[in-house]
Fold:
Amino acid sequence: MWCAECESIDEYFYSNTYFWLFLPTSEAIDKVTKMAEYAKYPLENVEHRCLRVQVEQGQTGNFLNQLNGCLDGPEFGGTKVTTSAQPSQLSIEEIGRMTTAEVLTRRYQAQWLAQAMDKHSYESWFQPIVRAGSDVTDPSIFAHESLFRIFDANESLIPPGFAFSLAEQSNLLFALDLTARRSAVEYFSRAKLKGKVFINFNPSSIYDPAYCLRATASAINELGLKPADVVFEIVETHRANDMNHLKGILSFYRSSGFGVALDDIGSGWSGLNLLEQLRPDYVKIDMELISDIDENAYKQNIVKHLIQIARKNRTEVIAEGIETEAEAEMLTELGADYLQGYYFAKPKRYSDRISAEERESIYQSTRPIEEAKKAHQFS
Ligand SMILES: [Ca+2]
Structure:
């Protein structure tokens, strides 16, 4: 609805799938031909180094395993593949979604994930971030972090870390990260929680901030949240090696009126360097540094140093993963501004799943991106 690039999930598997395999060597062609003949998959040698193999739906998993099994690592790694539902010539669109055999295999394993997104089998839960020095029985709540929860076809909760790494390996990270961001906005607006909302955001899930983030920005406006109440928490910063990309994201969020936090900043050089270069509104200290900090002078020193640098850059500090009273007291003493963790509250489910009808009515009432862009000047 808002961003065609991030929202489209390519379809690769049909009731009868034709796999067009572009193999790196003639030896690889021979191996796949033998495998297909042995397993009785209809096969055609389309041209030099391209085979078309027809596979019925129930056989897709087997076929992908056999393909992996008959080729050695580099051959499998060098195999490109696209699919079609018909044996006729490939269309431009089918050529355009050519991928590697490896990604296609992951995509097959991630079918439940694409379906869960399609069927909206997900929710956002919230965990409070409290002001340091708060009484644990009645803490002063500053904000809530939204935590994405996705379910498989049996409604079993899938660990989010697993879902996100599978999405990354199968080219679904763009779609999943956008889905999670939008879900955070929808469930936060529905739960009617007070204070700010922190929304996790993976910088490698977008190409161009000004274009890709409009979707999230307009969802926020349409659902009646103020940008000032929304803080994007940038995760996986240790893997971001393109500083200009990160800077572009921060400047987009800032110019649209949102807050920005850096997640999981630790003791390493890159964390401190990011803090100085990006000057975020908030920084979250890595849980590793928090656990048992009351008994560890080394960790206390690092955190003290981190807080000093943050102060200098006018960045507020959040300590997460607090599990004990002693940790909460130590972090307050060291000067952290806010605390988050099981000691105060676990992530909580605030409302039932948003139904398809309800979601539809939310979307019906929203304006298309072109209008939102004009109204809020996101361009
Ligand atoms: Ca986080």
Confidence is low (pLDDT under 50) at residues 367-373, 375-379. The domain at 113-374 is CATH 3.20.20.450 (TIM Barrel). The pocket of calcium ion is lined by residues 145, 200, 233, 235, 263 (CB under 6 Å). The longest strand covers residues 141-151.
